[in-house]
Amino acid sequence: MSDQNLNIALLSRNGKLYSHQRIIEEAESRGHKVRVIDYLRCYMNITSKDPKVMYQTEILNNFDAIIPRIGATHTFYGASVVRQFEMMGTFTVNGSLAISRSRDKLRCLQILARKGVGLPVTGFAHSTKDVDGLINMVGGAPLVVKLLEGTQGIGVVLAENRKAAESVIEAFRGLDANILVQEFVKEAGGADIRCMVIGGKVVASMMRKGQDGEFRSNLHRGGTAEKVKITAKEKNAAIQAAKEMGLNIAGVDLLRSKRGPVIMEVNSSPGLEGIEKATGVNVASKIVEYIEHNFITGKKKTKRKEA
Fold this sequence. Notes:
Largest sheet: 5 strands, antiparallel
CATH architecture of the largest domain: 2-Layer Sandwich
Order of helices and strands: EHEEEEEHEHHEHEEHEEEEHEEHH
CATH superfamily of the largest domain: ATP-grasp fold, B domain
Number of helices: 9
Oligomer: single chain
Strand order of the largest sheet: 14-13-12-15-16
CATH topology of the largest domain: D-amino Acid Aminotransferase, Chain A, domain 1
CATH class of the largest domain: Alpha Beta
Strand content: 25-35%
Mean pLDDT: 89
Number of strands: 16
Shape: globular
Number of domains: 3
């Protein structure tokens, strides 16, 4: 039990997901009240004197803190709702700017590159006809081609040779899509590491491995996960990546390469099921504890830095 009882809003389109149920369960066990709010059903009064978030006919002005769990499909509107809560002085575990930055894969990589964080060699293009130049930029085949807007392993293709790479890039060009081309880190062996960062600390880490013949390690694509001990360099890389994004709670995905850890993605709404079951760590409780330790009555502000 906490010595303060907070009124918390969990911004989500589906309160029945494992991650959300676990957060609610842990918060309520510590004496807090949690209400699931569908952020797409919110509307906002944009005014400098008295900003409001409305939910149907109700004014949402009685929350001490919010936990944004914004889906990739509706990042723009979800982040706008979070921003409105920030204008109202409500504490939010992840700010609107940080959510928007992390969801934009290119922007995320550019920010991390500027800060010297280890990354896979990456090229970015839309309709370039210089396919050879793009392939050579990342060291040739094999390489990975990603749709910039893809999520959860969708729109990610491993091109094992140059001809395949040219065909995939040409096909994606035909979709009028923005694409990322990245080096294939062969030594990672089809495995990546998910680090859960909360309040500037790695609280849990797991290694995810794809099925035989599958280079994508996403658990919902049939991958497996197990607890893993990470090195000091890996821990520091994960913490720095979350910090540069401005995220207080983040799932940071990295690969073990010959030159050290390289960051693949920084997730602002990481799932809890896989990492809790693989590691035995009560991540949901640590999220609630973070809110308790950082919520200050009368000073409910979320730090935001522009970039």
